[in-house]
Design goal:
The chain is an alpha+beta fold. The chain has a 5-stranded antiparallel β-sheet, with helices on one face. The chain is globular, with a radius of gyration of 13 Å.
Length: 97
């Protein structure tokens, strides 16, 4: 398990509101290595977080009520220091009504 995924599972996933359905999937040998994807959905927001084995990470959130993509970021291995702020923004968006 890469360090982003471990951080997420320990410190972020438990804070996702219970109204979200979480679904984990895995894909092998993608562009940035093996992929573990968390898809999440509620009545108002859907999205995914992609954890690649080559230390790339993507977060995507769509607000269904606003019909707008409210978060779409891709972090390269050189941007690892920015990922905690991305997770904080994700939690802020998911916790908003």
């Amino acid at each position: 398990m890469n360090e982003h995924l471990a951080y997420f599972k320990e410190l972020v996933e438990p804070l996702i509101p219970a109204s979200y359905v979480l679904t984990w999937t895995e894909y092998l040998e993608g562009d940035f290595g093996d992929l573990k994807r968390l898809e999440f959905s509620s009545s108002s927001k859907i999205g995914a977080i992609d954890f690649w084995s080559k230390d790339w990470l993507a977060i995507d959130v769509v607000d269904l009520d606003a019909e707008d993509q409210v978060l779409n970021v891709l972090y390269s291995p050189e941007q690892m220091h920015e990922i905690p702020a991305g997770f904080a923004r994700l939690l802020e968006i998911l916790s908003a009504s």
